[in-house]
């Protein structure tokens, strides 16, 4: 849905409201007339108003992060008592606590369910293998995977297509100011939780960490909008948060809580929200986000303690540290630093290649997913069968390895979960490739990060596992299930890092487990292009602060190398999905243009006191969200810009039928009969629509004063302002509309309105194809 009006030819039968342009005026006799275009040049913005959310194609619009300072807002703010301001402050912290509590609980139950479901499947397969019923073991393994995969795909395809994928690009876009009905809906939350459990337990090369970020954001949105009217879950005491600005802060806390719950990394969660997710940040938000992730850590710690007595099934004892790495002294020399540099370069190259291939696969899958839910499910089933065949078939290529010394009773793992899988091997032997493939992703990472025995995994095993995880991770991402990229990337990076450690063993002092950690860091840097947050997350995951200098070095190198080839994976997915994301920097070619060069028009404007029929027809025949309001004689000496009125506010005003038969100002009456909360934004697109209004023919001839709902202090720029400066201003302030005013007097008071679509390269370069995008 566009945020600005453009030129269209409109002719309405059976009425006196015909328009040559979407520009209205009222003649002295009260009839409808036409003004001259406010913008002489008839230029349209043809950028897409449709984007892909998850695996669903849906319309998008911008969010109102700006404080809308109209008379109703000012009256409400002045009338607030100290107790109400205190209540508002307390509620913000209470919601942060509830977000942390809920997200921590969901993260724990997610882990609990995955470990028990996957553990039951693997134990069943292992017991059949011990009885040498190999075909039965394969069909049991593949059958369980197929059932779980079909369940996850059915939930995504038929209930909430927006839940497919990791959800991080959608959350990132929302926090940038882009909204779509289904991004954070309760149905999306439900499918994200259970679809992620089924998808990860089904043995796909996916993680639950990305979906947990989306889950945390959905929980924050559900609480922040006062519940869900559709599902009869509403809380009137949360009316203070019925605006996009407060919801943005809550969803930022939810995204940070998701990372904290997924990785058990509270500080990493805060830094992830700061570095990757949020487009706007301030110190007050930092405190609340940190408080939210601290609550997550306490909840997880308390719940995990309950599992130490063995009451959590196959979940195990666990702890806040997910992957323990060798805690001995970390000593390294010049050859070790060269090896780290090599890992960083390789990680950057492989990471950029990974992003390129993921982009191509996603575009291919989009063509399949367009054909309907049935095709989405069939694609998931096909990938599930391929994954099961590879996971069960590849270990037959690996020879049996004698159990390491000191692992008596633990190797091989028989009749229980463990990292030493016997597969087809004789007693006291294990299949190292099976230990990686026929195990949960968390246990596979734990095996790669540890250093019980340097030769625990053969070089050929590590090479096969790397190619398996690398390419199957690419193929799996994009199917209609909740799927994260963190775990596949960590698995691939850890395997080639350990492989490099084995090869450099004779000349290196570093442990192979540390090489594995550095490989994971290099691959994460090459794909995600994050540095600070990834560094802290990895240190919190492994509890090894001594690795900080090497992790920092490898992340910086891998990101620098990968940036030479393409953008980060989430940035690529945002672009591929068609989300009009505003970057924090202006493109080089924007410095050669000014604001008036790209503004679209002519605009539809309203007078301060406007005819009801004019407003009704404009709202009916357009889908735009912002309309300039012009003060005109006899109310002012000359035409001047009064401000901007939002579509949603106009609909509420028309529904209240606060009209007058005379063309006079009566804003004070509207202020006495209306409250600011009457114009609060409804959640999830449940606001008024033009079809909901019933207006009689007599009312169409009446007038309405728009001044009480008009933002009388909109952000304005001169038409000669550099487009680069306008883009930075638009993004830094979190705007939805930016008014462009003329530089010289004697002209109409507004030249046009800039929205995020006017800054998109497709629009700018479409208007000026001769411009070099790099200059």
UniProtKB/TrEMBL annotation:
GO cellular component: chloride channel complex; plant-type vacuole membrane
Record InterPro entries: CBS_dom, CBS_dom_sf, Cl-channel/antiporter, Cl-channel_core, Cl_channel_pln, ClC
Membrane-protein topology: Multi-pass membrane protein
Principal location class: membrane
Domain called CBS: residue spans: 709-773
Transmembrane segments: 90-114, 134-160, 181-206, 250-274, 280-300, 337-357, 377-397, 462-491, 503-524, 530-557
Listed name of the protein: Chloride channel protein
């Amino acid at each position: 849905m566009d945020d600005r009006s453009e030129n269209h030819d409109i002719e309405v039968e059976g009425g006196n409201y015909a328009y040559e342009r979407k520009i209205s005026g009222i003649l002295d006799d009260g009839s409808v007339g036409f003004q001259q275009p406010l913008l002489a040049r008839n230029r349209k913005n043809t950028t897409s108003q449709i984007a892909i959310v998850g695996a669903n194609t849906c319309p998008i619009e911008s969010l109102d992060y700006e404080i809308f300072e109209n008379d109703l807002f000012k009256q409400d703010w002045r009338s607030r008592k100290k107790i109400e301001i205190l209540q508002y402050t307390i509620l913000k912290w209470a919601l942060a606590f509830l977000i942390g509590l809920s997200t921590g609980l969901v993260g724990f139950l997610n882990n609990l369910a995955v470990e028990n479901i996957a553990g039951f499947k693997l134990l069943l397969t292992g017991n059949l293998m011990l009885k040498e019923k190999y075909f039965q073991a394969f069909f049991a393994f593949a059958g369980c995977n197929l059932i779980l995969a079909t369940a996850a795909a059915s939930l995504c395809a038929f209930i909430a297509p927006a839940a497919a994928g990791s959800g991080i690009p959608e959350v990132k876009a929302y926090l940038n100011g882009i909204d779509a009905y289904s991004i954070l809906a309760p149905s999306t939350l439900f499918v994200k939780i259970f679809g992620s459990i089924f998808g990860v337990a089904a043995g796909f090369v996916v993680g639950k960490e990305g979906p947990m970020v989306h889950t945390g954001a959905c929980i924050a949105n559900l609480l922040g909008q006062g519940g869900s009217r559709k599902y009869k879950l509403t809380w009137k005491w949360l009316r203070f948060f019925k605006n996009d600005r407060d919801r943005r802060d809550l969803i930022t806390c939810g995204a940070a809580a998701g990372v904290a719950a997924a990785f058990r990394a509270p500080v990493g969660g805060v830094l992830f929200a700061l570095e990757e997710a949020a487009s706007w940040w301030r110190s007050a938000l930092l405190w609340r986000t940190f408080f939210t992730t601290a609550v997550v850590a306490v909840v997880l710690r308390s719940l995990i303690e309950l599992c130490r007595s063995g009451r959590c099934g196959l979940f195990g004892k666990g702890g806040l540290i997910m992957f323990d790495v060798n805690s001995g002294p970390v000593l390294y020399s010049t050859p070790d630093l060269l090896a780290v540099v090599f890992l960083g370069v390789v990680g950057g190259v492989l990471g950029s290649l990974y992003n390129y291939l993921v982009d191509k696969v996603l575009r291919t899958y989009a063509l399949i997913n367009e054909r309907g839910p049935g095709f989405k499910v069939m694609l998931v089933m096909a990938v599930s069968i391929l994954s099961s065949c590879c996971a069960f078939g590849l270990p037959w290529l690996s020879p049996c390895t004698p159990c390491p010394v000191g692992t008596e009773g633990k190797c091989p793992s028989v009749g229980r979960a463990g990292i030493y899988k016997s597969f087809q091997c004789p007693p006291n032997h294990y299949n190292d490739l099976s230990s990686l493939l026929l195990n949960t992703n968390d246990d596979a990472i734990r095996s790669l990060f540890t250093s019980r025995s340097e030769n625990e995994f053969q070089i050929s095993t590590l090479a096969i596992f790397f190619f398996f995880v690398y390419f199957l991770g690419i193929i799996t991402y994009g199917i209609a299930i909740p799927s994260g990229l963190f775990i596949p990337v960590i698995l691939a990076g850890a395997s080639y890092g350990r492989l490099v450690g084995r090869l450099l063993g004779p000349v290196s002092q570093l442990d192979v487990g540390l090489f594995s950690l550095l490989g994971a860091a290099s691959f994460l840097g090459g794909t995600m292009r994050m540095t600070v947050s990834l560094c802290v997350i990895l240190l919190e995951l492994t509890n090894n602060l001594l690795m900080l200098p090497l992790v920092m070095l490898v992340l910086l190198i891998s990101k620098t190398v990968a940036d030479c080839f393409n953008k980060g994976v989430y940035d690529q997915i945002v672009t591929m999905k068609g989300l009009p994301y505003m970057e924090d920097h202006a493109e080089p070619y924007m410095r050669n243009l000014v604001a008036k060069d790209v503004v679209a028009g002519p605009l539809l404007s309203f007078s301060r006191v406007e005819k009801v029929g004019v407003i009704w027809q404009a709202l009916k025949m357009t889908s735009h969200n912002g309309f300039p309001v012009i003060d005109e004689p006899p109310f002012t000496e000359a035409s001047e810009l009064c401000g901007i009125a939002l579509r949603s506010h106009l609909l509420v005003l028309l529904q209240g039928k606060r009209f007058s038969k005379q063309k006079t100002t009566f804003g004070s009456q509207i202020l006495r009969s209306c409250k600011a909360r009457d114009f609060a934004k409804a959640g999830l697109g449940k606001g008024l629509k033009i079809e909901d209004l019933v207006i009689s023919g007599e009312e169409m001839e009446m007038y309405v004063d728009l001044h009480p709902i008009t933002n009388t202090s909109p952000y304005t720029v001169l038409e000669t302002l550099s487009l680069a400066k306008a883009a930075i201003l638009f993004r830094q302030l979190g705007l939805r509309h930016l008014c462009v005013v003329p530089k010289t007097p004697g002209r109409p008071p507004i030249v046009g309105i800039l929205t995020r679509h006017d800054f998109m390269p497709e629009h700018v370069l479409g208007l000026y194809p001769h411009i070099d995008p790099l200059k």
